[in-house]
């Protein structure tokens, strides 16, 4: 009777969910690095809004109080830190974000072992979108190129493992070569982008030459520098 009277409890249901996070790698002097963050925010006030951020401390040797000061400085800039990498756990307090491990540099990558692909199972290496990407929408295709026959609205985002082709106006964010493809490019018929990025190197709207705005353009990497030129 006593056993029958016990309330049956269900297991807590856990679900996984992946997010694309910015990884910050502070350098010394940290104050100068924070000034660079301020300059980015000044050029594009909403650049980090709503984005998960991870701090990689492998390039600096900060004390526990130094880490706390850094986190406070970022919070003062409305940058919320999801987790910390590259530091001994003993240097973190229970009030700090957790120590993370196992992060991958690519945007999306399956964790399960890949089975041999048959001809019918071969993944497409390009994605074609016939409709515009509207404000607030995000398109992520890490396996190759993305081609959009319409426009990309302000506040929209397109992320591709290869190149990005926009046959209309590009007003939102376009991030190409996210899996380390430095030869990726971004093409558009009308450049009005909020942000362009290739393999982590980026330019915001204020960095783009005013003479190019509203014209066909392409973006590509030349060494560690992103170049944006007219597309003839």
Automatic annotation (TrEMBL):
<comment type="subunit">
    <text>Interacts with MinD and FtsZ.</text>
</comment>
<dbReference type="GO" id="GO:0000917">
    <property type="term" value="P:division septum assembly"/>
</dbReference>
<dbReference type="GO" id="GO:1901891">
    <property type="term" value="P:regulation of cell septum assembly"/>
</dbReference>
<feature type="domain" description="Septum formation inhibitor MinC C-terminal">
    <location>
        <begin position="129"/>
        <end position="228"/>
    </location>
</feature>
<protein>
    <recommendedName>
        <fullName>Probable septum site-determining protein MinC</fullName>
    </recommendedName>
</protein>
<dbReference type="InterPro" id="IPR036145">
    <property type="entry name" value="MinC_C_sf"/>
</dbReference>
<dbReference type="InterPro" id="IPR005526">
    <property type="entry name" value="Septum_form_inhib_MinC_C"/>
</dbReference>
<comment type="similarity">
    <text>Belongs to the MinC family.</text>
</comment>
<comment type="function">
    <text>Cell division inhibitor that blocks the formation of polar Z ring septums. Rapidly oscillates between the poles of the cell to destabilize FtsZ filaments that have formed before they mature into polar Z rings. Prevents FtsZ polymerization.</text>
</comment>
<dbReference type="GO" id="GO:0000902">
    <property type="term" value="P:cell morphogenesis"/>
</dbReference>
<keyword id="KW-0132">Cell division</keyword>
<dbReference type="InterPro" id="IPR016098">
    <property type="entry name" value="CAP/MinC_C"/>
</dbReference>
<keyword id="KW-0717">Septation</keyword>
<keyword id="KW-0131">Cell cycle</keyword>
<dbReference type="Pfam" id="PF03775">
    <property type="entry name" value="MinC_C"/>
</dbReference>
<dbReference type="InterPro" id="IPR013033">
    <property type="entry name" value="MinC"/>
</dbReference>
């Amino acid at each position: 009777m006593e056993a029958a009277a016990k309330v049956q409890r269900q297991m807590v249901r856990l679900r996984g969910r992946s997010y694309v996070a910015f990884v910050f790698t502070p350098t010394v002097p940290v104050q100068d690095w924070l000034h660079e963050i301020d300059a980015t925010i000044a050029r594009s006030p909403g650049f980090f809004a709503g984005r998960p951020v991870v701090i990689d401390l492998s390039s600096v040797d900060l004390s526990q109080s130094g880490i706390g000061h850094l986190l406070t400085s970022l919070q003062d800039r409305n940058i919320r830190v999801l987790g910390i990498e590259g530091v001994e756990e003993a240097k973190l307090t229970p009030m700090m974000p957790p120590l993370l491990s196992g992060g991958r540099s690519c945007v999306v990558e399956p964790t399960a072992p890949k089975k041999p692909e048959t001809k019918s199972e071969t993944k497409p290496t390009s994605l074609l979108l016939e409709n515009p990407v509207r404000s607030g929408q995000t398109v992520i295709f890490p396996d190759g190129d993305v081609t959009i026959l319409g426009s990309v609205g302000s506040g929209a985002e397109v992320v591709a493992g290869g190149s990005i082709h926009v046959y209309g106006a590009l007003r939102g964010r376009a991030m190409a070569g996210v899996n380390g493809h430095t030869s990726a490019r971004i093409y558009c018929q009308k450049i009005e982008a909020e942000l362009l990025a290739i393999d982590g190197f980026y330019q915001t709207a204020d960095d783009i030459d005013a003479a190019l705005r509203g014209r066909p353009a392409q973006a590509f990497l030349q060494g560690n520098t992103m170049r944006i030129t007219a597309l003839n």
